[in-house]
Amino acid sequence: MKQYDVFGIGNALVDTEFEVTDTLLQEAALQKGTMTLVEENERQQLLDLLATQHPVVNQSGGGSAANTMVAIAQLGGSSFYCCKVANDATGDFFMSDLQAAGLDTNLAAGRDEGISGQCISMVTPDAERTMTTHLGISQELSESELDEVALRNAKYLYIEGYLVTSPGAFEAALKAQRIMKQAGGIVSLTLSDPMIVENFKTKFDQFAEQGIDLVFCNQDEAMIWTASDTAAEAFLKLQTICPQVAMTCGKNGAMVFDGHASFTVPGIAVNAVDTTGAGDIFAGVFLHAISNQKTFTEAATQANKAAALLVSQFGARLEQKQLLDI
């Protein structure tokens, strides 16, 4: 029997969230609705700009795959998170946050000196989120951080698409993928962000060539990766790349393919205030469900409910009670 439901690998980041206006994004020269990688000096300049106009509304341990692993743990599943944080105050906060959530990690083996990663998430009144990420030491994630014993003892591997931006992290993800294939487990991948897919398409192609069993994405990411004009076209093309698909479509719900049949799960009408983490929690709830023998339709229905509840409030995670009540 496998020890873990899911082994996740991703960039470890502390999420700092602000409510902003479109004008602020223009002043900062940021493209709305996307994620931009920044250097330390750019991160500080943005924080200085935000400090003059906008207060922090939320801060928490984050990173896409971390949010997904936390959701699995909150639902009673077992998850292992592979990442890299520094031996600094931000890293201390992140490690304590994961321990409180009940996750096992590779961090007990020790942390290097440096600066831990931070994601600045800016939410406009239309609930759209724009992010800048300073990877810090997380961009040094490498094969040496992989806990192969834990990986071989997981049902699913979950690869965060943002890892394609760092050569070492990308190689670590590819190695994890090979190990999981050899162990007979299931490899899942999230495309993470439209701009990431557009700029690193060939690296996502490498994941596909090596073998993905389940892909998570939203319709924009899918359309870019498959060079499609519509979500429906992208959904069909994804099925030729990957045996199983879970594609979210915002307020229109989700389209899933279990390898045999496709299903459309309708969206849930909510007053959206913040879309940060919606894809992460969808993947977490979905993975927990299918790792416990739920159908793709059941998994997508439950995941949709979680994502709808999440976007109706600020922050990238729900409280455990909220998730358990869905």
Descriptive account of the structure:
There is one protein chain. The chain is α/β, with parallel strands linked by helices. It has one domain: Ribokinase (UDP-N-acetylmuramoyl-L-alanine:D-glutamate ligase), CATH 3.40.1190. It is 41% helix and 22% strand. The protein is built from 13 helices and 14 strands. The strands form two sheets. It has a nine-stranded mixed sheet with strand order 6-5-1-9-10-11-12-13-14, with helices on both faces. A hairpin with a 5-residue loop joins strand 12 and strand 13. Helix 3 packs across helix 11 and helix 9 packs across helix 10 (231-241). The longest helix has 17 residues, at 167-183. The radius of gyration is 18 Å and the shape is globular. The two termini are 28 Å apart. The model has no long low-confidence stretch (mean pLDDT 94).
Number of helical elements: 13
CATH superfamily: Ribokinase
Low-confidence regions: none
- By CATH, the topology is UDP-N-acetylmuramoyl-L-alanine:D-glutamate ligase
State the share of residues found in helices, binned by percent. 40-55%
Give me the oligomer status.
Answer: single chain
Strand content: 15-25%
Structural class: alpha/beta
Spatial order of the strands forming the largest sheet: 6-5-1-9-10-11-12-13-14
Major sheet characteristics = 9 strands, mixed
Number of strands: 14
The Cα radius of gyration reads 18 Å
Number of domains: 1
Q: Tell me what the CATH architecture is.
A: 3-Layer(aba) Sandwich
Mean pLDDT: 94
Distance between the termini: 28 Å
Characterize the overall form: globular
